[in-house]
Amino acid sequence: MFALSSGMPPAAIAVVRVSGPAAGTALETLAGRLPAPRHASLAALKDSKGALLDRALIFWFPGPATATGEDLAELHLHGGRAVVAAVEHALAAMPGLRRAQPGEFTRRAFLGGRIDLAEAEGLADLLAAETESQRVQALGMASGHVSRAVAGWQERLIGLMAGAEAELNFADEDDVEVYEGAGARLMDGMKALAAELGEWLARPAAEVIAEGLSVVIAGPPNAGKSTLINALARRELAIVSSVAGTTRDIIETSLALDGIAMRFSDTAGIRGEGGDAIEAIGIDRARAAVEAADILLWLGPVKEAPNHPRAILIAAQADRWRGDAGAEAEAAHCDLVLSAATGGGMDKLHAMIVEMARTLLPREGEPALRQRQRAALTEAKQWLAIEPGTREADDLILIAERLRLAATALDRITGRAGVEDMLDALFGRFCIGK
Fold first, then answer.
1. Does residue 45 carry a pLDDT above 90?
2. Residue 249 CB partners (closer than 8 Å, separation 6+)
3. Most exposed among 56, 121, 159, 353, judged by the fewest C-beta atoms under 10 Å?
4. Rg of the chain over CA atoms, in angstroms?
5. pLDDT averaged over every residue in the chain
6. What is the fold of 218-358?
7. 232: Cβ–Cβ under 8 A, 6 or more apart, which residues?
8. What is the 3-class SS of the chain, one letter each residue?
């Protein structure tokens, strides 16, 4: 298969990659030779009729030590559209070559054992990263932070599984190392591993970084919500009007504050009842958005503020009420005095949102799990949890089965370890089958 692996032309250089058993033949056909492995070489590329396509740098990477695990060739072309199109046309005309499907290079890398599922997910996130926090988190995933942790857990599980199998099947063999109280020892190992998995599950989810934190602006009608979201977005996103009920649906915009992706939502003014059925629907949606928010910006009376764990109480529209004793008394109970119209307090609000957001994100360098990975880890933890004193706690067969099921759940994160690993541990560590 082949594909353009760099950005769309025109560009200074265009990289066309060919992967698979026919990669060497394709390179020889175009360049007339194979260069020394992993060395750049200048070559004249020609089509099947001998017409010059381009003068380019060529690279030859014999498998399996390549990105995909297969033979791999790269053509570093001049990055014009016509050049790229001509070379791709010449490649497509060769027997056994075809254009790659979306994600096929990464899929082959996984199938070839060059990366695991977690690393592939990290690579996908890295390609989609738009903010600094997304880049750092995705790079850690692609670099194998999660995979290394899973490998450590699998190694411990394999040791426990091998111990259980040895006790069950080979306890009467002289050359097998067995222990008194094997069930209790296995239970202790399972409990310690389950506790470590629980610590990972308590961390923030990776989706918080990838999709952005939800920041909801809420309050009664005419509280300055639309003015605030316009000020944050620095454009006229929402209609600003003195007419109550102007905003009837949720208006959302994606912003990055200090490299953290966030989704800001302007909501309908919350009051006892809407002016009509449409506004009433908007109010219901506003209340639902408040409940689901990661961070709430409340613009309204403190006594009416929803009971939200991460709410910033804002005394808004300060440019209108300064000098009003009642309004200033109310503002004394708020976290922030703000005038989105004049910009007063916006820098402080920015800092408060970022500070609160950082408490919801993984610490720097700390890996986070995606939903699929969290589900697998949760299942593994459940299989490892056995109540002491129960029938299962005294039954080595049931313990061994729980260990196997926990290992199967962990395997879904990376797509690697399996029964063969347990057998290697069993027959390697216990000297069975001399």
1. yes
2. 268, 282, 285
3. 159
4. 30
5. 84
6. Rossmann fold (3.40.50)
7. 253, 255, 264
8. CEEECCCCCCEEEEEEEEECCCHHHHHHHHHCCCCCCCCCEEEEEECCCCCEEEEEEEEEECCCCCCCCCCEEEEEEEECHHHHHHHHHHHHCCCCCCECCCCHHHHHHHHCCCCCHHHHHHHHHHHHCCCHHHHHHHHHHHCCHHHHHHHHHHHHHHHHHHHHHHHHHCCCCCCCCCCCCHHHHHHHHHHHHHHHHHHHHCCCCHHHHHHCEEEEEECCCCCCHHHHHHHHHCCCCCCCCCCCCCCCCCEEEEEEECCEEEEEEECCCCCCCCCCHHHHHHHHHHHHHHHHCCEEEEECCHHHCCCCCCEEEEECCHHHHCCCHHHHHHHCCCCEECECCCCECHHHHHHHHHHHHHCCCCCCCCCCCCHHHHHHHHHHHHHHCCCCCCCHHHCHHHHHHHHHHHHHHHHHHHCCCCHHHHHHHHHHHCCCCC
Q: How confident is the model at residue 176 (pLDDT cuts 50, 70, 90)?
A: very low
Give the predicted TM-score (pTM) of the model.
0.63
Domain 145-203+368-429 has CATH 1.20.120.430: yes
Q: Where along the chain do the CATH 3.40.50.300 domains lie?
A: 218-358
How far apart CA 73 and CA 58 sit, in angstroms, is 7
Strands 295-299 and 311-315: parallel
HEC assignment per residue over 214-276 = EEEEECCCCCCHHHHHHHHHCCCCCCCCCCCCCCCCCEEEEEEECCEEEEEEECCCCCCCCCC
Query: pLDDT per residue over 311-359, tens digit each?
Result: 999 998 888 877 777 788 888 889 999 998 888 999 999 999 999 988 8
Fold classification of 2-111 is Gyrase A; domain 2 (3.30.1360)
User: pLDDT, tens digit, for every residue of 261-271?
Assistant: 889 998 888 87
CA distances from 87 to 14, 35, 52, 53, 98 (A): 11, 18, 10, 7, 13
Burial 89-116 (b: 16+ CB within 10 A, else e): ebbeebeebeebeeeebbebbbebebbb
